[in-house]
Please model this.
Amino acid sequence: MPFQGAKAVKILVANSPPNQGSLKTRSAHIFRLPLPDFLYNSPILAYSKNIMSQPLIIALSAGEASGDLLGAHLIEAIKKQRPDAQFVGIGGARMIAAGCQSLFDQERLAVRGYAEVIKRLPEILKIRRELVARLKQIRPNVFVGIDAPDFNLGVAAQLKAVGIPTVHYVSPSVWAWKRERVNKIVRQVNQVLCLFPMEAPLYEAAGGKALFVGHPLAQTLPMQPDKAAARERLKLAADTPMFVLLAGSQVNEINQMAPIYFRAAQLVLRELPNAQFISPYPTAAARTRLQHFLAQPEFEKLPIRLQAARTELACAAADAVLVTSGTATLEVALCKRPMVISYKLSALTYWLVKRKIQVPHVGLPNILLNKAVVPELLQADATPEKLAAALLDWYRQPEKVAALEADFVHLHEMLKLNTDELAAGAVLAECR
Model:
């Protein structure tokens, strides 16, 4: 049910925060809390019967598919500790299914790169203004911005200024560039939840509060994927060459990378005529764009199977993966599969990024392991010929793949914590 405006109810609240346990009252006062209709009418808000019951309202904002997955896991973990919690903000299909009331279409925020953002900036700023206004009205116990820092940190700063606690889940890549941004983030949020071990010390050194919670993918994906079982589920023969194509989670990424990846697949087929390809997609919009390209005469005969989500299943079955730089590279690594990382940005965006980057790699597996364990073919090197050659190189060198898998097991162990529980506890601890 969408928001219908807000109603105000008089409630008695305790000064102590609604933390993980039951609410313990030290002192209390009466105030007016404006709430949207869907929360006002909830049985949880039966204040006339029990004025000591205060709903826990958690606002979340996720700007893309990877954030949607994190948000869904966070919601489920919070609900285990606080079944009464209500969730509102911006989320995708997974967060909505988990119980989040999304005020805006997440896809409207899913853009990447300087040049691309500039085109959509007026719309994005309008959404941010409206979101801030709605959340100021709702007065959630805490706001959690999930990734999408350029959008969410601006929201967090405005909410923190009016007394709403703020948490940012997924540190921006301050270790790669913009290290001067750490001081600003510390002022914008009460706490940063970090997915990688080198991040929390940067915020603590700046006087902020940060917690390394591990990466949720390391928690959910098996340490030793079963390739044979994955192939059986996908109805693939054990000896069929199979490659996964991950062109990106956002439409603009797919528009840029999908034609290049599909041409690379054509070149692989020349060497391996029985090869098969699977292209998982995270959203309906992504599927539509992939279908658009596959319907073109150039690609219509390619043996490419589109698959709704379940990237981990496809990767577990793959001989090698072609993947657009981003969180997906980590997922492939945790599936212990060889990969080729690629990306092409607009000329303007690439020029700006190249000037600021402070690490020698762009792919997360290479960054976290501090060495070039998988090839990165970017910009001018992102050609069908080079991508196909790199995929075939992995396919033809099983001994090289075995060494890579050992590196990825080490990476998995580094990142495996009880992420969902740690993140949920940190969020609840900030609630007022």
